[in-house]
Amino acid sequence: MKVSALSPALLGLVASAQAAAVASSIQYSTVTGYFLQDETATDASTFDYTAVNFGLINRTYPADQVLKHQGKDLSQWERFYHQVQKLNTDSDNDVEYKVLFLGRHGEGYHNAAETYYGTPAWNCYWAELDGNGTSTWHDAALTANGVNQALIAHNFWQKQIDEQNIHTPDNYFTSPLTRSLQTANYTFNGLNLPHNAAKFRPLVKELFREGISIHTCDHRRSKSYIKNLFPGWPIEKGFTEDDELWNGVTAETSGAQDARSATALGEVFFAKSTKEEAFVSVTSHSGEISSILRVLGHRSFSLKTGAVIPVLVKAEKVKGATSTTTTVSWTASPHCTVPPVTSVTACVCPSSAAPVTTPLVTDV
């Protein structure tokens, strides 16, 4: 069932996105040939970014012709950095290249619960609860395994800094959900960064959150909670105290999420001094990263918890373009009111408990 009533916060997001689209829009594309993850032969289910230099392909670049006269023996990542610089230098003002490091959060308690209950039962009953009396997964925190996955990323970044002299992110962004905040902190806090590198001070950004479903793990906590959890981290302007997007009844469609992702990317590209700040970290979620990849025209590439995918992106302003989107489509999501009878592929509520589309409240 399509739902036309939108929250004031969501209406504000839609209005701002449409207003920006009237003046100009941004066309995104993935520049392939640089990372193994771009290639159809690379199997996402078995890919380990820590085993293959983040996936950076060992190859030559046009920028190497300039570098060879400097008499320096540069690493692959150093040469790639100069190639990105060259792409930006050679492009006009309406074109910009950035390298996005899209990192999925480590395992959260919601991930562990879904594995325990099975996806059908999780989706139509357990995910609508705050927890089960043993674990809490409302705005889920990282499990011990999730912390370890983030520390693996931390150690790999340090190895790349020490051995490859990788250009670390010029800007950091993170979803406001707890598991992403924690992952960003475990991954980047305490790194021995290169001289003159940008400090790790991530901007908490609402639109990089997970796809908004009726699951309580997608219901973010308050702005005050985030400030207390990580004092000193900037939170974007307009960020509301309470979550005005999640209501426990309606869920984003893929199209609505992609529109949101495009808006978020539009606030990352073409900012002040943006061509000089071409390396960007975004700590987010599986569904949101999949959405970003769709917006960028990248092939589908599913990330394991804690994994990272770098993408070289070309963004081009298209002046005078107008938006064709008039509404954001959301759907009502029915769920069981008691634990379901499940099969391998579907969820079936007991005959005595018909599915409902109201928030599930129960004592557990």
Automatic annotation (TrEMBL):
Top-level lineage group: Eukaryota
- Fetch the Pfam families from UniProt: His_Phos_1 (PF00300)
SMART domains cross-referenced by the UniProt entry = PGAM
- Which residue ranges traverse the bilayer? none
Q: What are the boundaries of the signal sequence?
A: 1-19
Record the organism. Penicillium subrubescens
**Gene Ontology terms, MF aspect:** phosphatase activity
Q: Which UniProt keywords apply?
A: Signal
Recorded GO cellular component terms are: cytoplasm
Q: What is this protein called?
A: GPI anchored protein
